[in-house]
Specification:
This protein has helices at about 30-40, 110-115, 130-140, 155-160, 165-174; strands at about 15, 25-30, 45-60, 65-75, 85-100, 120, 125. The strands form two sheets. It has a five-stranded mixed beta sheet, with helices on one face. A two-stranded antiparallel sheet has the order 1-7. It contains five helices and seven strands; from the N terminus they run E-E-H-E-E-E-H-E-E-H-H-H. With about 170 residues, the chain is α+β, with helices and mostly antiparallel strands. The protein is elongated and about 90 Å long.
Length: about 170
């Protein structure tokens, strides 16, 4: 995945001062260089297209909600044959941004999964690109496989009869 100290493949961010009271709607398509950086960061063959639509609303108290979705065309390698497989990723996201985010420990797994996504506002900017990147990463097929791909491996020792227990017994009988 991505190195936290490395720059994000999608450096899309919105200044909090640019969000009007009624909210801000936007859409953005990744450039060729951004798609190449995404493919490299995600370890896929290519990101052929990526479009994101989003809306940012002020919630009061310096908090904002980022909601939207992505639509992407990607090419991944088959886990069996390594042949290219075209795929589509369509994911929705909804994240709350706050200036002060408490890192309170949660004891139960169910509570972690039920908790809303809350991110920290850094440098008065809402990191739309990071959320789009994370949505794309989460939506990728972890084991892409061509329909007709089949794993057919044979142990060379078994082919020679050396590992077959009945072949060993036959030798003892003779």
């Amino acid at each position: 995945m991505i190195d936290p100290s490395a720059p994000l493949p999608l450096d899309w961010s919105i200044e909090t001062t640019a969000v009007p009271d009624r909210g801000l709607k936007g859409s953005r398509a990744a450039s060729e260089a951004e798609r190449a950086a995404l493919a490299d960061a995600l370890g896929i063959l290519s990101c052929d297209a990526l479009e994101a639509t989003y809306q940012i609303r002020a919630l009061g108290g310096g908090a904002y909600r980022l909601e939207g979705g992505i639509d992407a065309a990607v090419t991944q390698a088959c886990v069996i044959s390594l042949e290219p497989i075209a795929g589509r990723v369509a994911e929705a996201f909804s994240v709350e941004f706050r200036r002060d985010v408490e890192d309170a420990p949660v004891e139960e797994e169910a509570e972690i999964l039920a908790a809303p996504d809350v991110e920290r506002i850094e440098n008065d900017r809402i990191a739309v690109g990071r959320i789009v990147y994370e949505a794309l990463a989460a939506g990728l097929d972890p084991y892409p496989r061509k329909e007709d791909a089949a794993f057919e491996w044979r142990d060379p020792k078994l082919a020679e009869g050396a590992g077959n227990p009945f072949a060993v017994l036959k030798k003892l009988k003779d």
